[in-house]
Amino acid sequence: MRFVIIAGNGGGCMIQSFPKEISGYIGDNRIVKKRIGRSNASVYEIIGADIYLKRSLNTDSLRKERDIYLWLKGKIRVPEVIFWFENKNEGFLLMSKIKGNNLISNRYLKNPEKLISLLVCGLKEVHKIDLTNCPFTNEESISQKSFVHGDFCLPNIMIYQNKISGFIDMSDAGIGDPYIDIAWAWWSLCYNLKTRKYEDIFFDKLNLIPDFNKISYYTKNVFNEVIRLDK
């Protein structure tokens, strides 16, 4: 094991240990722990190496995410798998950094209509993936109609030069109900804008009359965080 000083997103430092199989990729580079999202996994950016490291006690989920990226290579833009290591306690996934910023960057939050256009573009890109020989299913879906991301929230869509540059955090991806992505996209859009003012634009661009029963089903306990916001 090697002990490494980790910088936090909001400042401060901590010391964490990494297996020797992983520490070789860190080298002398600065490493920063990211804090976006609600996942139980820990995500680190290895500054200067254009590499992200994801570690999780849920090895099965992280291994699935690795396999999904490998299967999606050449179909849509996802991180390239660089190295995988697991021990009896946890898994470690090293992957390439996708160029750009995610959709919770201020430049997009301050321009909701552009944000929505990119969000809808991303939904359509994921949902048109050919399902031939796809070995993955989204376990939460109540139907299997298309390929789905499974956690289609603003932090998981990367943008570069005003175009989608890739998708991340895809451990729940697979064949499923496209409404699971629509539900989480709606939730994330309203939650991060702190208003439901723009939801009609979102649904209009999808040419969709929203089914809030389905949206509530998929977003479950956090549905009320958004549905009570002002329109």
How would you summarize what this structure contains?
With 231 residues, the protein is α+β, with helices and mostly antiparallel strands. It is built from eight helices and twelve strands.
Task: Give a description of the structure.
The protein folds into two domains: 2-96, Phosphorylase Kinase, domain 1; 101-227, Aminoglycoside phosphotransferase (APH), C-terminal lobe (Aminoglycoside 3'-phosphotransferase, Chain: A, domain 2), CATH 3.90.1200. It contains eight helices and twelve strands. The N and C termini lie far apart (52 Å). The mean pLDDT is 91. The chain is of the alpha+beta class and 231 residues long. Helix 4 runs antiparallel to helix 5 (178-193) and helix 5 (178-193) crosses helix 7. The chain is 33% helix and 25% strand. The chain is globular. The strands form three sheets. A seven-stranded mixed beta sheet has the order 2-1-3-4-5-7-6. A three-stranded antiparallel beta sheet has the order 8-10-11, with helices on one face.
Characteristics:
Phosphorylase Kinase, domain 1; Aminoglycoside 3'-phosphotransferase, Chain: A, domain 2; 231 residues; 7-stranded mixed beta sheet; 12 strands; 3-stranded antiparallel beta sheet; alpha+beta
Distance between the ends: 52 Å
Total of domains? 2
Outline: globular
Low-confidence stretches: none
Overall structural class, as computed from helix and strand content, comes to: alpha+beta
**CATH architectural group of the largest domain:** Alpha-Beta Complex
CATH topology of the largest domain: Aminoglycoside 3'-phosphotransferase, Chain: A, domain 2
**Number of DSSP strand runs:** 12
Share in helix: 25-40%
Sheet-strand content, in percent, reads 15-25%
Order of SSEs, N→C? Answer: EEHEEEHEEEHHEEEEHHHH
